[in-house]
């Protein structure tokens, strides 16, 4: 083969690889992400310092091309998920991303509430309206509202909860047009949308799924810079970091403590996805302890999956089952200083 033919073949092969890498398959690939220290991104005003650190753990998730699909097939701690296992029916990439970011926001609010209440500090909320998560196809809101829009008034009326918003809209007659005052990309505008009977409920509506837009009010103030991290799985670790800055005793005892799990305002820890990848990420970061949702001892719990992974990678991390925020605090209080 001449050098010219070889060169052309090489160029053709490179072009093929580049082009084919942009051909996406109907799967997502999940792989170990990072273990990120929380003290640099969470700040309680005049809060206490800590010798160790609390860390959230993440997974890296992305659409699979033919190469990442093949790699995941032969990688022990990479996992493939069909699209409908990650995204809702008819949910766009934008809607999925908006939903993940608002799940993170809700997680932060719950974490702040449970931490401040545990520290004996009063918590208040200010309601600002609702955020649009999804817009249903062939429904009145299609083409008029977008994921991420904030609705702060309807017909000039403000509401104290999303329940009041839904009650007002569903109380109208089918075909009646309502004025929605919204904020999109920091700009305010008004859109007119008629209500229509929803086949799922039999009540009238405009065809959106939504979540409360509310701000928590606490003293001392707290800020959480979660950037573009989405999803609710950092809730438990957020709450532990916030609480640790509120109280004088340093619960880290000088250790690096990782974990995962959702948190609600009652302090209950919920299961998450990708626990195996998160164990790998925490181990690489040198964590000494990993909190895993116990799910009340269920046979297929996050905790059991975490234990199996920990044994497989031969980590020295202590895998600790937790059902509540208090379970985690009690374990930390029982640890000896490093």
TrEMBL record:
<feature type="active site">
    <location>
        <position position="278"/>
    </location>
</feature>
<keyword id="KW-0472">Membrane</keyword>
<keyword id="KW-1133">Transmembrane helix</keyword>
<keyword id="KW-0378">Hydrolase</keyword>
<dbReference type="InterPro" id="IPR001478">
    <property type="entry name" value="PDZ"/>
</dbReference>
<dbReference type="Pfam" id="PF05362">
    <property type="entry name" value="Lon_C"/>
</dbReference>
<keyword id="KW-0720">Serine protease</keyword>
<feature type="active site">
    <location>
        <position position="233"/>
    </location>
</feature>
<keyword id="KW-0812">Transmembrane</keyword>
<feature type="transmembrane region" description="Helical">
    <location>
        <begin position="9"/>
        <end position="29"/>
    </location>
</feature>
<keyword id="KW-0645">Protease</keyword>
<dbReference type="InterPro" id="IPR036034">
    <property type="entry name" value="PDZ_sf"/>
</dbReference>
<protein>
    <recommendedName>
        <fullName>endopeptidase La</fullName>
        <ecNumber>3.4.21.53</ecNumber>
    </recommendedName>
</protein>
<feature type="domain" description="PDZ">
    <location>
        <begin position="100"/>
        <end position="156"/>
    </location>
</feature>
<comment type="similarity">
    <text>Belongs to the peptidase S16 family.</text>
</comment>
<dbReference type="InterPro" id="IPR020568">
    <property type="entry name" value="Ribosomal_Su5_D2-typ_SF"/>
</dbReference>
<dbReference type="InterPro" id="IPR027065">
    <property type="entry name" value="Lon_Prtase"/>
</dbReference>
<dbReference type="Pfam" id="PF13180">
    <property type="entry name" value="PDZ_2"/>
</dbReference>
<feature type="domain" description="Lon proteolytic">
    <location>
        <begin position="225"/>
        <end position="335"/>
    </location>
</feature>
<dbReference type="InterPro" id="IPR014721">
    <property type="entry name" value="Ribsml_uS5_D2-typ_fold_subgr"/>
</dbReference>
<dbReference type="InterPro" id="IPR008269">
    <property type="entry name" value="Lon_proteolytic"/>
</dbReference>
